[in-house]
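Hi R.,

Quick one: here's the Homoserine kinase sequence you asked about.
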Amino acid sequence: MDAKIRNQFIGLATVSAALVAIAYIRSKSQNDQKVKKQEEEGNEREDLGRNSSWANNDLTDNSAPVPLMPHEHEKRMSQRMQKFQSEVIDEVSQERNKVTVRVPATSANLGPGYDCLGMAVDMWSEVTVERADKFSMEFEGDGAADLPINEENLLCVGVKAAFQAAGKQVPPLKYTCKSRIPYARGLGSSSAAIVGGLIAGLVLAGHQLPCWGKEALLNMASEIEGHPDNVAPALYGGIQIGIHSGERWTSERVPCPPGLQAVLFIPNTVGITKEVRGVLKDEVPRKDATFNIGRVAWLINALATGNIDNIKFGVQDALHQPQRGKHCFPHMQPLIEAAVNAGANGAYLSGAGPTIMAITSGVSGDMFTQRFNERVDSEVGDAMLAAAKKCGVQGQVYITRIIENGAQVTYAEPNFSRDVLRYHGDV
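And here's the predicted structure, written out as tokens:
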């Protein structure tokens, strides 16, 4: 090889080797810096762990891990969530001029669950409350002639309680009520008014309840009503069981099989709760108490497991239905027997009466879309009407369903969000 060419080749090789060496040094330097940064972050995480409240506890193998420094994207997500929550709080805390609330009818007791069990059914009351120059109230529906059209109305009582909780004076308001819940028939019309008033008042006042969970509103409603059996399902829907813990009211949802229908015989005459409660004894025999304890447990187990054939035993009662049937509602027992004999899974006196509620099962949907052998709703309704006729009691039969959702705000002015609207299924 020519000496000149050899020297050029050696020079190129030397330059290439130098470039490779430089690239390696740079790469190593960057990696060293990265490792150093990771070690520093690791030390910060360890310091954070040592300084955390968890690190001061005696940790076992099953204890929660020491928290680590969140990554940047986690920080950003946390900041966004805090911003979103603050916007939601600000939005709810804004006073409003007008609100519309829908509340379902409810059926209390379900037989043995006196003052503690209730369920929501697909019959609704709708109330609109708006700021005005002076007080006014318009009422459309059953009971319009019997209800007080003044501030003693339970709807107004609920609104007043909400404003008091907000520490504000109640302004002049206009009330517009449209109720499809029969008045004083044992279907929770008073609870619907209380719940509707409380929610409407909180929205108008722009007040969020300080609460330990979902129960704050339940406690306000139960204090007005006196017990949670109607107000709990009116608020939360489904079948609810409520108790008083000694400090406050609390409730839980009872699992319910899908497709349960409600067949109601609603007499034309009203039942006054105070009068109907007056026939009950202050003390009950131990055997009756034992009977009801077993029936409540049996009913909840039947609902939770979907063993609907056991409902007919679970809705039996010894504490209030026999006395009320004897002194107030002679049609009660004949209609219960007629409903069960016609194929109902169970039947009982709804609330304080006089409505008789029968529970049936089948594929969820309108009875006219089902095969003949899939439903017994119409047969149960016909049997109840025939039994009522024999008892000399006039009334109507309604076929509806048990619903899982409770009270809803369907309209607010200003709206809760310019971009997100809740669709409630109204046409």
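The chain has two domains: 98-254+406-413, 261-401.

Cheers,
M.
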